[in-house]
Each structure stands twice: as C-alpha cells, then as structure tokens.
Design goal:
Elements (H helix, E strand, L loop, with lengths): L1 H24 L17 H4 L5 H28 L1
Helix pairs in contact: 1-3
Length: 80
C-alpha cells in the first residue's frame, strides 16, 4: 500500500505542475473584448474549439478532473 501511495502522490504533483502551467498559458478574459468590434466573426472566433486556446481549455478540464480524482484517492487511503 505504501508504494501505491507514493505513486499516486508523484502523479498528483505532476498533474498539479502541469495544471499550473496550462492555466498560466491561457489568455485572460479581457483579451476577448474584441468581440464588441466584431472580431468574433473571424475564423478564430468561429473555430475557437479547434484553436490553441480551445485545446488549452479542454486540457485544463481533463487535468482538473485528474487532480480531483487523485486527491480523493489519496484522501481515502489516509482515512482508513
């Protein structure tokens, strides 16, 4: 059981670092103010899910879910 806890802890640390980097790579919400001037009708505005920003959002969701699952698994092991 000790080896499994070490592996899960290392995975949690790796996911935490990756999540921090991915969040810092994302644009701020103030960058979307171009939509007022009609910039949302551009190619990148229509295909945001396929752009780099869309990929970062999807990757953030996956890493957050992995973080929560790993944190819960580590917590369940410490209760017993």
């Amino acid at each position: 059981m000790g080896v499994l806890k070490i592996i899960l802890t290392v995975l949690l640390i790796i996911v935490s670092i990756a999540l921090t980097v991915i969040i810092l790579m994302q644009e701020g919400k103030s960058a979307g103010l171009g939509a007022i001037a009609g910039a949302a009708e551009t190619y990148w505005g229509k295909n945001k899910g396929r752009s780099m920003e869309g990929m970062l959002v999807k990757l953030t969701r996956v890493l957050v879910i992995a973080f929560i699952v790993l944190a819960c698994l580590l917590n369940v092991g410490s209760i017993a």
